[in-house]
């Protein structure tokens, strides 16, 4: 042992040498293996934790009119997705400068930032700085809850690393800018730009971009609407960071910081006027295009609708006015619908005076149609079947059909009346008589063509007495057939749907079918114009031509009370209907006014909306309907007897004729009790009879004759000519 004395701890040296040769490499290799296993575990864990379906963000569906003008949004989160190419570089830089200036250097987590944050937290003995990267914030906002724990931070880091592995930096930044919350219910950079500055993100200035970048840390606290001073200070902090990180020079930063804080907040659309229409969009999207309401408020679609915003707002305003709605209480309800006649697009809809979202849409509620049914089930079919013409005479008498005895509303009857006048004045007795002559089944067959199938089989359908009734939308579509050569057209509220990629996935199709001939439709239009100008629909004022029909039904629980009242009408461009009544009519709750109220309201809405007040154009190949000939009574006939060399004795008759030059005048003689027609003139007021026997002169009288109806009027007084 002594021979090793003086040599420094050789045993220890040998031991250290063996450690460095054997152990250290083992430790390094083991660490690498553990690190590799850990990294693989992170990747595996990321694959397990990341559900890519969650990266599909909710985005608002936008409704626009046919001119592309914004109407409103449907959303669960007010967000509009935008591509990175549309986000200006200076806007991107603002967010990177304030949230994660080493964004393009790290791989999901920033160890330098974390170390710096821990150091500053220790110095300050409290949490003063966060170390989360933009990728970590995206991971937290989409995949994690707001719990504060080491486990959540670990998950956040794992997800962030895996996001960086799967996506490029540009894709991550794009997702982040589309995802973050900016306050006031606004999500994503595009919706925020639109809300705060009424601009698309592509048009944002540097200071506007800095203002938006200031918001995510405290959207309410830094809101330029609620706290403009704090918002400006925070914006200037972001501008300063842009300078610190080399995006702006000093002069640019100072100039921008001096600028006032200017916002142009886009006021939210008042939705109440549009609620019925929006609900009908939801329904049609599901029925025709298979898009659920849930998909619609999350899927970021653009839906073009035929809605006329001004018309919708005017209709809504008038529906709030009690003066239009007569009733024993203020709870009178109503429905309104107006359709573009040429293609079936709905221009405006009101489902109730106080309609609420997903409420009772009275546009689709069946009610008793009253006399609005006469043109559809009686007069239109009667002309089409060539049973009657507009100037055919119908019986206007109080008749009984089994146990059914229809009465005119004024309880007056004239015996015979033309279809023209029966429709114009909304007489009940002639309508029922005509349907009885034509046959109920024939009338119903035309209803089926108009998608108005009914269960009822009695003559009362002539007056709209139905078991279930029909809806305002159904009546509107049916009357459209009179406006367009007898063609029924399917209505729609969605003209076109585009998905979030701008691809058209649905479009309205013109679906038409022939119900009446063009000739029948034109005859009906001319008669329905008369109903508005001279008959039951003359209440209110409208400068152009309007065809239409009123309808009123009586209360079944109170004598003399009104249950439903209607006006259905059309101009050359639009067709629509208004219904008024209570959802439930009782002895205490009923209408106190009739069809003049919806008629006046319909005209007031059209007039205020300044819809074109043009004239109807007669279709090619049809005959026009002349104005009705109105016979006048001949008060006095003058006569004289005179001598003419060539005619011997001549009788000259004169009378006061009517203004209508189309009236025929039949001249009769009476001799020995025998009445003989001796002549006829058209539009004249004089007639001569030659070669009269002066020893036995007859007496004469004049009878006006209507060639349209082939009916004679009242005869004049009899006169016996004498020499004068």
Automatic annotation (TrEMBL):
Transmembrane domains' residue ranges: 21-45
Residues in Glycosyl transferase family domain copies: 68-241
Assigned keywords, A-Z: Carboxypeptidase, Cell membrane, Cell shape, Cell wall biogenesis/degradation, Glycosyltransferase, Hydrolase, Membrane, Multifunctional enzyme, Peptidoglycan synthesis, Protease, Transferase, Transmembrane, Transmembrane helix
Residue ranges of every copy of the Penicillin-binding protein transpeptidase domain listed in the record: 334-606
UniProt-recorded Gene Ontology molecular function terms: penicillin binding; peptidoglycan glycosyltransferase activity; serine-type D-Ala-D-Ala carboxypeptidase activity
Pfam families (UniProt xref): Transgly, Transpeptidase
GO cellular component, one term: outer membrane-bounded periplasmic space
Catalyses which reaction(s): [GlcNAc-(1->4)-Mur2Ac(oyl-L-Ala-gamma-D-Glu-L-Lys-D-Ala-D-Ala)](n)-di-trans,octa-cis-undecaprenyl diphosphate + beta-D-GlcNAc-(1->4)-Mur2Ac(oyl-L-Ala-gamma-D-Glu-L-Lys-D-Ala-D-Ala)-di-trans,octa-cis-undecaprenyl diphosphate = [GlcNAc-(1->4)-Mur2Ac(oyl-L-Ala-gamma-D-Glu-L-Lys-D-Ala-D-Ala)](n+1)-di-trans,octa-cis-undecaprenyl diphosphate + di-trans,octa-cis-undecaprenyl diphosphate + H(+); Preferential cleavage: (Ac)2-L-Lys-D-Ala-|-D-Ala. Also transpeptidation of peptidyl-alanyl moieties that are N-acyl substituents of D-alanine
BP term (GO), one: cell wall organization
InterPro entries (alphabetical): Beta-lactam/transpept-like, Glyco_trans_51, Glycosyltr_51/Transpeptidase, Lysozyme-like_dom_sf, PBP_transglycosylase, PCN-bd_Tpept
Entry keyword Ion transport: no
Entry's family note: In the N-terminal section; belongs to the glycosyltransferase 51 family. In the C-terminal section; belongs to the transpeptidase family.
Name used for this protein in its record: Penicillin-binding protein
Organism from which the protein derives: Sutcliffiella cohnii
